[in-house]
Design brief:
Layout: H1 9-31, H2 37-63, H3 72-101
């Protein structure tokens, strides 16, 4: 059976389920007191990547409705760049927070 012939509500349901799971993850991670490096990176990547994707996807639709390739900006450029920059920002935030609280060992000494 081809995916083209499926009902249009399946794509809407899939989008809603993905949005709910990402928002649940972000909600839980922002409430945790001590997040590790991987969690900080993933949280930053999810938040900033989502913002970048939304701006690049919906911005061209709103500002140039006649352009037929406008949403591709969010899919191929601003979404992935936001994901990468968010991950780097999450890592920088984690290192800054750990240094401020004094939990990072200096010079690799235990």
């Amino acid at each position: 059976m081809s995916l083209v012939h499926w009902s249009p509500w399946i794509s809407s349901l899939t989008s809603i389920l993905a949005a709910i799971s990402v928002s649940r993850y972000v909600w839980r991670q922002t409430g945790s007191l001590h997040a590790g490096l991987a969690r900080s990176i993933l949280l930053g990547a999810a938040v900033i990547g989502g913002i970048g994707f939304s701006a690049g996807f919906f911005g061209p639709i709103l500002f140039t409705p006649g352009a037929n390739q406008g949403p591709l900006l969010g899919i191929f450029i601003t979404g992935p760049l936001g994901f990468i920059l968010g991950g780097v920002g999450g890592a920088i935030y984690w290192f800054a927070r750990e240094r401020r609280t004094g939990r990072v060992e200096k010079d690799g000494a235990a």
